[in-house]
Amino acid sequence: MSPFVIASQLDEDFNEVIRQRLAQSHPQARVIGVPAGVPSDLPAEVGILLARPINVRGYQAPDTPPPGWPYGLQWIQVVSSGIDFYPKWLFNGPPVSTSRGSAAENIAEFALAAIFAAAKRLPDIWVHDAQWHFTALTPLKGTTLGILGFGAIGRSLAAKAHALGIKVLALRESQTPFDVEGVEAARDIHELFSRSDHLVLAAPLTEATRHIVDSTVLASAKPGLHLINIARGGLLDHGALLEALDNGSLGLASLDVTEPEPLPDGHPLYSHPRVRLSPHTSAISSNSRHEIADSFLTNLERFLNGLALENQADVQRGY
């Protein structure tokens, strides 16, 4: 097979894992590191781009591509699950695939950890002196977990929850069967919110789902509901969230994502007593280098053999 060159915007330790894996299967391949951000001035021999999110931390890519785009690219794989972090022109050239599902287990574990922390009142119950006060902790068995969106994250989370004796109620856009034991379909988003003790937002951010969780939906919430967002901050109307927390419609919000990211200094979500905020870290693990390599190299084999790419981005669908 003729040599080919991959340009990667990943950190060098990620690139080195890919190089080591390619040395066994495709020793003729080269991986070169290129800067993150808008891809520009790629060498002519580069046919494949492994891209990091572009529109992050307040940066917004220009509405038009750089001169010469898409250069000699034949395929782009982005390392995120969604496509909302990229300018639209990135999808007007060679095929683009995503890394959807590569971090599903990490994110599902994180959501489950947030549920355990809320039910078992961690870290509030840790003691630091001899004044011990016993607290009744909430069991998870028999409670109801709601899941909005049912892709790889939802499937993984539902299976884990079911194994713990948690009832699972889910809502997805399509009518495709859930194919996970113990999952019940909610009639609509209001039923999902009204029956759930813990509810995880795991849907992609599209024009149809932006602020899908608004004041009307939050008004349907079961008293004391614990809302967990590990997907995209734009799914949730933050003003409506704060109002629901203040008026008691919600008991707790665990947010790994916000809009914007990071929130500006002084934002009320930082200091609200019923908000647990983390810096969009649920997908990142000590094994991320290998998870991203697995996703990319699986698609690389398909690309080199002329097969349809997995998780090919669909701009009309929004993911």
One letter per element, helices H and strands E, the order comes to EHEEEEHEHEEHEHEHEHEH
CATH structural class of the largest domain: Alpha Beta
Strand content: 15-25%
Tally the structural domains. Answer: 2
Spatial strand sequence of the major β-sheet: 8-7-6-9-10-11-12
**Shape category:** elongated
Tell me the number of helical segments per DSSP (H or I, 4 or more residues long). Answer: 8
What is the CATH homologous superfamily assignment of the largest domain?
NAD(P)-binding Rossmann-like Domain
What oligomeric state do the depicted chains represent?
A: single chain
Q: What is the name of the CATH topology of the largest domain?
A: Rossmann fold
Largest sheet: number of strands, sense, barrel closure = 7 strands, parallel
What's the gyration radius in Å? 21 Å
Distance between the termini: 32 Å
Global structural class = alpha/beta
Question: How would you summarize the topology of this molecule?
Answer:
Elements: E1 5-8, H1 12-25, E2 30-33, E3 46-51, E4 75-78, E5 96-97, H2 104-119, E6 144-148, H3 152-163, E7 167-171, E8 183-185, H4 189-195, E9 198-201, H5 215-218, E10 225-229, H6 238-247, E11 250-255, H7 268-271, E12 275-277, H8 288-304
Parallel strand pairs: 1-2, 1-3, 3-4, 4-5, 6-7, 6-9, 7-8, 9-10, 10-11, 11-12
Helix pairs in contact: 1-8, 2-3
